[in-house]
Each structure stands twice: as C-alpha cells, then as structure tokens.
Amino acid sequence: MRKLLFLIITALFFTACGGNSSSKPAVDYAGKLTAKIKKGAMANEKVTELAEKKGFYSNFPSSVGVKSQQVEVVFQEFAITNYELKDTGDEPSQKGQIMVKFILFGDKGAKAADPIKVGEYAPFKPDFNSNETPKVNLTVGDIQVITFEDSKETKSLSQQNPRTGSVKIESVTDGVVKGTIDLKELESSISGNFTATLKK
User: Fold this and answer.
1) How far is residue 79's CA from residue 94's CA, in Å, rounded to a whole number?
2) Cα distances (angstroms) measured from residue 13 to each of 2, 6, 52
3) Digit-coded pLDDT (tens) for 17-37
C-alpha cells in the first residue's frame, strides 16, 4: 500500500512540474509586431515597434483581378493598433499612433459569415509573365504600416513585389483570431504576433 501511494505521489509530482521536457513553450499572442521598412536604394531602414492595444478584423465579399478576370473571394481585413480602435478604418491621427493593416483572401467557396480558416497564408503572387493562373485563396494581399508623427505616413509590403514568408492563423475561437506574421519583401520585413476580434 505504501509503495502504491509513493508511485501515485511521484506521478503527480512529475505531472505538476511538466514531466514532458520536450514540449514547446506556449506562444504569447498578446500582440507585438516589428516592421523594418526600407523603400528605395538610398533610403534608410525605418524600424517600427507596435505593442498591440487593439485588434479588429472584418469579412466582406469582393474580387481580385487575375489574368483579365475577376476572382470572387472573401476579404478578411485586419487592423492591429497601439491605440484604442473603434473600426478597421480608424487610421492614425495623433503623434505616436501606429496601425498594421493587412488583408487575407479567404478559402475557395467561403462566405463572409464563415469563420476564418486556421492555417498558413502565403503571399499572393500576381505573376503577369506566367501563363498559369496564380493562387488567390488562402493568400496574403498588401500589408500596410501606417504611422503618424507630423502627419500620416503609409508604407506597404506590396503584393506587386516578390515576397516570402506567411501569415499563420493559429486559432479562431468565438470570433477571436490569434496568429503570427513573418513576411519579407526585398529589404523590408514585418514579424510578430497578434490577436484580433471580429468587428460586428
């Protein structure tokens, strides 16, 4: 009996201490994004740090022009800010305010009312020199970094330029999306974690 009690106590101890030492630490989605933007060969790199205070997203049907045709797709527009936000269109208007704004193109056949699909969204690549139709669904459109110092300034990681990396949607629960960004375009990049709530 004493031996059995000892084994039970030992098992509980290892469980409480996290007996599986190989498990990965949980990702913190509290929201911190780092943008390093450089536009033009003579431009200096500008590093922007955003500690998230608010994040919203909204879904709406639209279309993307591909090879002289319009592909219908659900736009999933995200806005992550370091200030209080009422709508995804509330862009910076005061000194020190920062917004990271981006669009994901939804899954094929998805409706605006459908939850965002969990998974990895690669950059949308409109290859005008290829005969193949580029993939639209589950890709990333433009990403904008909007700041306000003396006036509003917008920098973009444009879908017209070669981009690498992805946006990953890790979870969607009751309209709350958690994910990560790791995208590069030429000499510019944006990376970090975010949390966004569905704007109703």
Assistant:
1) 17
2) 16, 11, 37
3) 444 444 444 555 567 899 887
Structure tokens at 149: 């110092």
* C-alpha to C-alpha distance for 59 and 198, rounded to whole angstroms: 8
Answer for the pair 37, 147: CB distance below 8 angstroms, yes or no.
no
Per-domain residue ranges of the chain: 29-198
Contact 170, 7 (CB under 8 A): no
What is the predicted pLDDT for the residue at 45? 72
Distance CA 14, CA 89 (A): 50
Q: Tell me what the pLDDT averaged over the chain comes to.
A: 81
For 67-110, give the DSSP string.
Answer: TTEEEEEEEEEEEEESS--SSTT----STT-EEEEEEEE--TT-
Spatial distance between the Cα atoms of 36 and 145, rounded to a whole number of angstroms: 10
Q: What mean pLDDT is predicted for residues 173-187?
A: 91
The confidence score (pLDDT) of residue 30 equals 61
CA distance 176 to 57: 9
pLDDT-based confidence at residue 129 (cuts at 50, 70, 90) = low
Q: Which residues contact 187 (CB under 8 A, 6 or more apart)?
A: 38, 45
Radius of gyration in angstroms for the set of CA atoms belonging to the chain, rounded to a whole number: 21
DSSP letter (8 states) at residue 132: S
- For residue 170, the one-letter residue type is E
